[in-house]
Specification:
single chain; about 80 residues; mainly alpha; 2 helices; disordered N terminus
């Protein structure tokens, strides 16, 4: 009897670890999705602003730097 109880306990722990790993992958996918969304948003915003404003404008420079920051984060994660 003790053997079966221990086996169940081990299986339960493995299932719990599996759930944690699976949850971690879901969080990683969600974070990658957020990064991709932020990159696309800033890229479209930057392209539209460059049609109107000069590339030396402070706002355009800030958005460009922010876009670079998100691209670097995405490349490190993916």
């Amino acid at each position: 009897m003790i053997f079966f109880e221990n086996l169940f306990y081990v299986d339960y722990n493995l299932f719990y670890v599996y759930k944690l790993v699976k949850r971690g992958t879901i969080m990683n996918r969600f974070e990658l999705f957020k990064l991709r969304y932020n990159i696309r948003l800033r890229k479209c915003l930057l392209n539209n602003m460059l049609c109107i404003l000069s590339p030396r404008n402070k706002i355009v420079i800030r958005i460009s730097q922010n876009l670079d920051k998100h691209i670097v984060k995405y490349q490190k994660r993916a």
